[in-house]
Fold this sequence. Notes:
The structure holds two protein chains of two kinds. Chain A is α+β, with helices and mostly antiparallel strands. Chain A contains 17 helices and 21 strands. Chain A has helices at residues 2-15, 30-36, 40-63, 65-71, 74-108, 130-137, 145-153, 167-174, 178-196, 236-249, 253-271, 439-445, 483-500, 523-535, 572-583, 601-619, 633-637, and strands at 37-38, 225-229, 279-285, 295-304, 310-318, 324-328, 331-336, 341-349, 353-356, 358-365, 371-377, 384-387, 405-406, 410-427, 449-457, 460-466, 504-510, 516-520, 562-566, 587-593, 623-627. Chain A is elongated. By secondary structure, chain B is mainly alpha-helical. Chain B has helices spanning 15-32, 37-56, 59-78, 83-109, 117-144, 151-167, and one strand spanning 176-177. Chain B is globular. Classes of the chains: A alpha+beta, B mainly alpha. Chains A and B meet through α1, β1, α3, α5 and α10 of A and α3, α4, α5, α6 and β1 of B. β1 of chain A pairs antiparallel with β1 (176-177) of chain B, so a sheet runs across the interface.
Amino acid sequence: MSADSSSTAAAGRSNAPSRGSDDGRGDPPADARSERTVPDLVVRRVAVLGAVVAVAVGGGVFLAADRLLSALPADAVVALEAFSRLGLYGLLALFLFQSYRLARHRLAGPVGETIPPPREAAASVPAPGDDLRRAVASVRNRGDEAYRSIDERIERWDRPPDDRRPLADRLLDAIGMEAITARRELRRSLRAVAEAGGVEVDDDSPPGRGAIGRQEHGTGSSADVLQRRTGHWSGISVLALLGLALGVFYQQPPVILASTIGIGFAVYGRIVGPPEPDVSIERTVTETSPEPEAEVDVTLTVSNDGDRTLQDLRIVDGVPAELGVSAGTPRGSAVLEPGGSRTIRYSIAARRGRHRFEPALVLARTVTGATEVVRRVRADRSPTITCLPAAKPLASKGGQFSSGRRAGGRRTTAQAGSGVEFHSLREYHAGDPASRIDWNRYARSRELSTISYHEARPATAIVAVDARAAAYRQPVGSVGVHAVDRSVDGAATAFASLLADGHAVGLASIGPEPLWLRPARGEGHLTRGRRLLGTAEAVGVSPPESTGYDLSVLRLAPLDAELLLFSPLCDDDAVAVARTLQARGASLTVVSPDPTTVDGPERAIARLERRERIDTLRSAGVRIVEWEWDEPFERVWGGR
Amino acid sequence: MSRPVVEPPDGSPAALSSLFAVCLAGIAWSLTVPYSTTGAGIATIGWLLAALALSVGDRRLLSTAACGLVLGVFVAAGDGARSAAVLVGVLASVLAWDLGNNAIGIGRQLGRNASTVGIELRHAGGSLAVGACIVVLAYVPSVLVRGARPLVAVVFLLVAAGLIALAVGPDDSLSVRLPE
Lengths: 640, 180
């Protein structure tokens, strides 16, 4: 070993005199590293070689001790004893040093195991006010950008003077904890503004680090097969080395003996080869096109197609990212004989959209736990779950959705014709029905004239859904339902109800790549619309990547069409959208599901801001229908 | 608008292996009691730490606890514990550490809702069988070989054992960085 090390050291010196202190940092090229360090494998082989030699010599001495001792002169025996003692102590010191290194390695380095993503929870979107919460949490002092922008944001309202500056804050300020006091001050201001605006704040607990947003679905490693040593037994050789050293120093044979346990388990951790999980999975569901909120039972069967027993198999099913598990667990484990199989059952709550299962994560371990093989296994057969919004037509009472619509589902138009509402008077032409002759006028002037009425005919309506990224908001505590989900549910019901009333109804969305369905009538159109609302990317369950939006499809709408826009109005762009649509002359009604909550001043401010947007739009003449989060759409449609 | 939801694993260790681990730590502790007060004291701390580590699912704490248990047994050996007791005590400590780590790993990967008894028993059985073999293989020769032996032979065997222990250490633990 010494010859080896000195030669590499010499090479290192001659080749790289200028490479200074970057040793160990960054990523030096492989040859540079081999110049400076003796690789692990070389040291390991040298150690094994040394052990073999030591065993041979020791065994020889052990068996032939008497003969050897009598053959050697007495001085040589004494010298040999002395030197071997010295050598032994040196080696023991080395063992102690190495066991220190190993212990530090074990305590510092994490065990190399795959933590599967949290498949149970559906991916979620932020709550209104989360951005403000994050901004407040990022404030460092009163001079920084975040502080000033929040200050400007609440300047629009009359802020009550902040005269109650607690002693604790003054003390904290005195010792330089401005980051904390500035945040507390901001939250006090936000709270005061919200309450002055008539929004009661529920809970004033400061945001914890994990409280903002929720954990997103991670895909984990993208590799299909991954093999790794877990390091489960790493550190066990400390027991061996420490036992040897302590046992010799304190002359305790039982302790030396106990160190064999350390050696034994260290060997055990290394001798078992990696498992070769040759598994297949099959997945069945009880219902591939469930109603929204229905429970779907999933059965996952994992089979061992290989010819070796899998001693430790852990399985996590790839539940579709947008669906949550409602009962059971998508995780399981098994010891699988060749040909054996294992079944995992759980239920998921159906939700609008087309959902595909992802590959299941299969973790195979050796019985020792030292090696882990990770595989992502696609099912041989895996169903797709398609869930469309209910779209049940409601009785046509939706009076507040239309300016001119009459009971019976007709609206008067600007065109003259037959009807009930007076439009104009013209000269009588032969063939005009006698019922439309103005007989009063005839009595006065003896002139025949014909009355025209506003022609009543079925209207054209466009049901639009705000599906910009900023509309994807959900109240704190809502699981798997956000404002766009509610909007789409409402839009589907409105679409079906208006169709049932005989109107021509179209669909549109507002987002980066909006959907558009031409207004039409009929059963086939209802099916088309429902399918579109259920599965179109434009109004999908996951928010779009882009925050932009495109209103151009709404130019395709007929000029006289009524527009029914579903939007949570959670940002100022929503107001701009509504005003643009209104400026184009559309008769606009905004139905606004309310995802705001009042837990914490930041979220209360979001509610206050939404109220202001509603007021702004109302004063501009836009009809707004507010839709509380817990309220069924029937109540909103029926006009409360 | 909230549905019943199954929570992802919260990291609490698998129940059965945790129970085994705490029992094994108890065995290691009980073997120190007859021989040494100091050893028993150290082992008590180790046992308590092990229980704590398994209730919170902390690997570092568990390793510390195992060190405490082994140290307690070593001290007991210094105060006159017999080889068999020391071997069993150290084995129990190592198994407690092993099963505890397995319990923490299973808890993080699968959680308590999943059925994990099969793989837990398989792992525990494997470790126990290997541990029993090691103890027998170490104990029997030490009983059979009695009487004075030349120190040189013992030294060489110890050196061999230490070098093997080095060689079977974890990956990348042996590279030696050379001074400039």
